[in-house]
Amino acid sequence: MTVRDIAASPARVERTTGSPYPLLTGLAVLLVSWILLVPPFGGADEFDHAYRAAATARGQWFTTPSDATRGTGAWLHVPRDIVDAARPECQARVYTTASDCVGTREGDAVRIASGAGRYHPLYYALVGTVALPFHGTAALYVMRLATAALALALVALALGALRTWARSRIALLGPVVVCTPVVVYSCSIVSPNGVEMAAGLAFWAAAVGLLVADAHDVRRLSVIAAVSGATLCTLRPMGPLWCLLAAVVTLLAVRSEPGRVRLLIRRHDVQVSGAVVAVSAIQSVAWTVAMGALELSKVSDPVHTSVAHRAGEIAPLVPLWVLQSVAAFPMRDDATNPAVYFCYLLLFGALMVTALRCADRRIRVGIATVVVVTLVLPFVTSVSSYDELGAAWQGRYALPFALGMAVLAGFALDRAGRTLPGPWPVLAGVLFVTAQVVAAAYTLHVEIGRSPLVDSAAWLRPPMWLLVVLTAVGAVLLWWGDAVPRLLGRGEART
After folding, report:
1. pTM of structure
2. Among 301, 218, 213, CA closest to 256
3. CB 16 within 8 A of CB 467
4. Which of 30, 106, 341, 379 has the fewest CB neighbours in a 10 Å radius?
5. What would the 3-class secondary structure string for 370-429 be?
6. pLDDT tens-digit profile of 45-87?
7. 394 phi and psi, to 5 degrees?
């Protein structure tokens, strides 16, 4: 087989039928629900990110690392209306000072500290520019909508990539299950984390497709891989590592036809895609090093302890990281109702057990590799930096890479032609919808009791009954829109 062969070979893979629009519509409804239920500037460090977006959109792309506050922070010049709107939620935090919430007025702007001041400016320029015509809380809501739109576009790319290689709708179960409540929440507040997760999903789906999809889809997959890979590499400091690891694990886990990788490497479109991702990774690393974007707040006068002591302190946090990948909001250390964890972990366990039973050895090794990296890498880095930084890792940090488990599980089920056994198709849907609804309703209940904006017209707070209806409709559309018809045995394939 030659390069020309792979460019002109006829289609051989059966493709899934059905439209991705019900799934995307359901996700959009969930995103809007979270945009409304979280108080303005009430997301995790959301005021920091909003400051960064407003300053970047007005030309302050670069900051001075020597002026940093709170680890990865810097001094920014932010419009006074945004600082004033953020002040109630900012001052409600136990870790903030006047430098973070009040600042110093300089004309129409305020010189204020932002904990996100050294992060890469691309995301902030996009959402901040869209919000330029708006002021105060309205600007914040526009930034949230822009963030949700970016994440939704990347999920659409992921579905487009997946549909090039999926033989049945069961493959869509992976992208549905990775929409944990914390993923949906992260995509609905002003922060690059959720967009990074969506980019990771699209890159995983495209990477699998490049190895197994029909030849005429390679160009489309190359474009999706370039867009999602460049986005993943750029938005957050650890993005280049997650992108590299995802590519390596895909090569390890997915069996392709002999000579496929060599032929892909020789294709011009694949070369261009690889170059785009590589350049994005290089510039991201250069930015991170130059700006010190991984320098977190250090403990003053740290006591140097033994490795055994540090390992003992970090080990109990490993299960916490797993739970945080399901739900931890609005603050990074806020737990949700236990029913959410029970439902989602049971659902995810059913998916993984079924997939592993029918997967070949390579896919099992790939999934195991993702699990090991997701747990061991944070453990090792946390142990090594515990004396200086304390317990700095959060479960959501690894999600752009960890969600590859669900993509590979969906691929295994798709190739084996398997479904969830017995009553699990319906039960899994009930678990999914319950987790989404309870997570949103519980968060609104908590915020009504503690937010300083509870009586303010600035918070577009939905009544509880409306929130329950919205999240239930969104979750039902997301789950039943495309995945469950195949799970119930009503899916069909076409050539």
Report:
1. 0.92
2. 213
3. no
4. 106
5. HHHHHHHHHHHHHHHHHHHHCCCCCHHHHHHHHCHHHHHHHHHHHHHCCCCCCCHHHHHH
6. 999 999 999 999 999 998 877 655 666 678 999 999 999 999 9
7. -125, 145
Taking each helix axis as running N to C, give the angle between helix 136-162 and helix 122-130, from 0 to 180 degrees, rounded to the nearest 10: 120
CA–CA dist 110, 75 (Å, integer): 10
Q: How far is Cα 118 from Cα 68, in angstroms, rounded to an integer?
A: 8
Encode pLDDT of 443-454 as tens digits. Answer: 999 999 999 999
DSSP 253: H
Beta bridge partners of 79: 109
Domain boundaries, the chain: 18-39+146-293+306-494
**Token pair listed for 451:** 């937010």
DSSP 67: G
Distance in angstroms (rounded) separating the CA atoms of residues 171 and 209: 12
- Written as six digits, the tokens of 434 are 């319950």
**Rounded-to-integer distance, Cα 349 and Cα 255, Å:** 24
Cis peptide before 378, with omega less than 30 degrees from 0?
A: no
User: Residues, the chain, total?
Assistant: 495
Give the DSSP H or E segment for 76.
strand 74-79
Residue 198: what residue type? A
- Under the banding of pLDDT at 50, 70 and 90, the label for residue 170 is confident
User: Helix crossing, 268-291 with 218-235: angle to 10°?
Assistant: 0
Q: What is the DSSP letter of 44?
A: T
Cα→Cα distances 113→52, 60, 135, Å = 10, 13, 19
Give the strand pairing for 104-106 and 109-114. antiparallel
How far is Cα 52 from Cα 231, in angstroms, rounded to an integer?
18
Q: Are 335 and 424 in contact (CB under 8 A)?
A: no
